[in-house]
Amino acid sequence: MHHFVVDHWSQSDSPLHRRDARAKLFVLVATLLAVATAPAQFQWTGVGLAAPILAGFLIARIPLGAALLRGLVVLPFTATFALISYVGGDVERAAALLWKSYLSGLAVLLAVSTTPFPHFLRAAEWWGTPSFLVTVIQFVYRYLFVISEQVQHMRMAAACRGSGGRGWLFQRDHVAAAAGAVSVLFSRSMARAEGIHRAMIARGFRGHILTLDSPRFGWLDVVFAVAAAGGLIALRIVLGRVS
Questions:
Q1: Model's pTM, two decimal places?
Q2: Is residue 9 within 8 Å of 31, Cβ to Cβ?
Q3: Which residues contact 25 (CB under 8 A, 6 or more apart)?
Q4: How much is the pLDDT for 208?
Q5: Residue 56: its pLDDT value, please?
Q6: Do the beta carbons of residue 32 and residue 18 sit within 8 Å?
Q7: Which of 119, 121, 118, 115 has the alpha carbon at shortest distance from 6?
Q8: Can you give the C-alpha Rg of the chain in angstroms?
C-alpha cells in the first residue's frame, strides 16, 4: 500500500501530533473563522495570521517547503472568483480571496498532517457531525487507497508487457487501451469493495467504524485548545484594528 505524503506526515511524533484530535479540530475552526473574518487588506493581518500556521508546521517538524507547495492546491478553486473580481475592478477583493483561501488551506493541511484521518473523523463526529456523513467520508478515504493500489498494479503490469505510453494522446489505439484499462479498474475495484464489505460484516460492522484505541481529552489538550483558539481570535482582533 502506497500512502499519501500527508498520511505519512500524520504518523509522526511531535507536540502537535500528541494533542487530541478534538482539540485540534476546535483550533482549526477558530483559525478558519479568524481568517474568514479578517479585513480584505493583507498587510499585517495576513502576515500575522500566517505566522502561527507556519509555526505549527515547524513545531510538527513537517517540511515547510513541501507544505507550502501542497497548500497551493486550493487556489484553482478560488482563482475563478478572484479573476471575476479583478476584471470587475475590485483588485482588493480578488487578492483577499486568494490569500484567505491559501491560509485556510494551510490550516486544514496542518490539522490533517498532524492527525491520523480516522481520529480526525472521530473528532468531527464527537463535535456533532452526523455519523452517516462521517462514515461516507471514511469509506471514500479508504477506497482512494484501494483504487490507487489497483492503478499502480495495472501500470506495473502494462510496463512489464512493454507498454511505454508513446505516441499521440488521441490515437485510436491508445484511446481504446485507456477505455479498457478504466473498465478493468472499475471491475477490480468493485470486486475489492465487495470483498471488503463481506469482511466488515463478518467482523460485526453495524454502520459505525470502531477503533481499538480510545484517546483521552487531558488537561494539556484543554490548555492547548483554549490558548491556541483564544490567541488566534485575540490576534485577529488586534491585527484588524491595526489594518
A1: 0.76
A2: no
A3: 111, 120, 123, 124, 127
A4: 65
A5: 92
A6: no
A7: 115
A8: 22
3-state secondary structure (DSSP) of residue 63: coil
Region class of 167: left (phi > 0), else alpha (psi between -120 and 50), else beta: left
Helix (H) / strand (E) element for 73: namely none
Q: Closest Cα to residue 30, out of 123, 107, 129?
A: 107
Q: Which positions ≥6 away from 15 have C-beta within 8 Å?
A: 59, 60
Calpha distance 155→149 (Å, rounded)? 10
Residue 2's pLDDT is: 43
Take residue 64 and report the three cell numbers written for it: 515547510
Alpha helices by DSSP H, 41-130: 43-59, 64-71, 75-87, 91-113, 117-126
Count Cβ atoms below 10 Å from residue 5 Cβ, excluding itself: 13
* pLDDT per 10-residue tile (average), the chain, 243 residues: 69 89 93 87 79 92 90 87 85 87 92 87 85 80 74 74 55 61 75 78 70 76 91 84 67
Q: Which residues contact 180 (CB under 8 A, 6 or more apart)?
A: none
Q: Write out the three cell numbers for 76.
A: 484553482
